């Protein structure tokens, strides 16, 4: 069975336009979004641990993680997007393993469990039983799971679902995943807040008092705990 992300958008062009050739946008996304993700991955995945990204798109985070010593596999079901991801991997000197694969077929095809299964910008495109299945698959593939989704406060989201922390936690629990951590990232207030607040305080406030474009949750999978 295949459940691809809806094709209302040309995803290849979307990722290409926001890739490494568009340097200003690339740098903005890197500094606004990547540090919180990387910090949480370092916290929850042992050094040199294994990670799988589901619905990897251009795979830029997976490529970065592979260069940091993690064993990384990235999968997507769009052939053109996968070619773009492989090109990025080669161009940036990454060590990620990038494969064309439908998300729901990954547990059977991959045949192993990773320290972390994560996705960014994926589950908000699914609803109903399809959403439950996508969440369940993450728990099949990872001892821990991380979802990154758009928050209700994201002003740019018009064609997909958005979440609050409570809604995201409720979704995870419905798939028997146990939430253990959460964080926010990518906010218009990040520039001044970084200047005024100590990093440890900012890390605690993002996604709680300071509204963010994206929120994320980390869960354990009871199957492997």
Summarize the structure.
It contains nine helices and seven strands, in the order ααβαβαβαβαβαβααβ. The protein has about 220 residues and is α/β, with parallel strands linked by helices.
Written account of the structure:
The structure is a single chain. This protein has about 220 residues and is an alpha/beta fold. The chain has one domain (about 25-215): Rossmann fold (3-Layer(aba) Sandwich). Helices cover about 40% and strands about 20% of the residues. The protein is built from nine helices and seven strands; from the N terminus they run H-H-E-H-E-H-E-H-E-H-E-H-E-H-H-E. It has helices at about 10-15, 25-45, 60-65, 80-90, 105-110, 130-140, 165-175, 190-195, 200-205; strands spanning about 50-55, 70-75, 95-100, 115-120, 140-150, 180-185, 215-220. Helix 6 links the parallel strand 4 and strand 5 (about 140-150). The chain is globular, with a radius of gyration of 16 Å. Mean pLDDT is about 85; it is low at about 1-10 and about 190-195.
For the secondary structure, the number of strands is 7
* Helical content band: 40-55%
CATH class: Alpha Beta
* Strand order within the widest beta sheet: 3-2-1-4-5-7-6
Order of helices and strands: HHEHEHEHEHEHEHHE
Mean pLDDT: 83
Annotated CATH architecture: 3-Layer(aba) Sandwich
**What overall geometry do the principal axes of the alpha carbons give?**
globular
Q: Could you tell me the radius of gyration in angstroms?
A: 16 Å
CATH homologous superfamily caption: Vaccinia Virus protein VP39
Spans of at least 5 consecutive residues whose pLDDT stays below 50 are: 1-8, 188-195
């Amino acid at each position: 069975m295949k459940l691809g992300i809806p094709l209302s958008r040309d995803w290849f062009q979307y990722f290409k336009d926001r890739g490494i050739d568009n340097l200003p946008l690339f740098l903005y996304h890197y500094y606004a979004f990547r540090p919180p993700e990387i910090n949480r991955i370092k916290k929850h995945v042992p050094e040199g641990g294994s990670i799988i990204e589901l619905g990897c798109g251009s795979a830029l985070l997976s490529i970065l993680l592979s260069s940091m010593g993690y064993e990384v596999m990235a999968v997507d079901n769009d052939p053109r997007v996968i070619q773009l991801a492989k090109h990025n991997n080669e161009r940036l000197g990454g060590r990620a393993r990038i494969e064309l694969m439908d998300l729901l077929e990954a547990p059977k095809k991959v045949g192993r469990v990773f320290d972390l299964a994560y996705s960014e910008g994926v589950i908000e495109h699914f609803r109903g039983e399809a959403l439950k299945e996508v969440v369940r698959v993450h728990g099949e593939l990872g001892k821990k799971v991380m979802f990154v989704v758009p928050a209700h406060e994201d002003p740019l989201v018009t064609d997909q679902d958005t979440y609050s922390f409570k809604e995201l936690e409720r979704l995870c629990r419905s798939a028997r995943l146990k939430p253990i951590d959460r964080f926010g990232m990518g906010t218009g207030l990040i520039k001044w807040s970084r200047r005024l607040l100590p990093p440890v305080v900012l890390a605690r406030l993002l996604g709680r008092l300071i509204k963010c474009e994206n929120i994320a949750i980390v869960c354990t999978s009871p199957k492997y705990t």
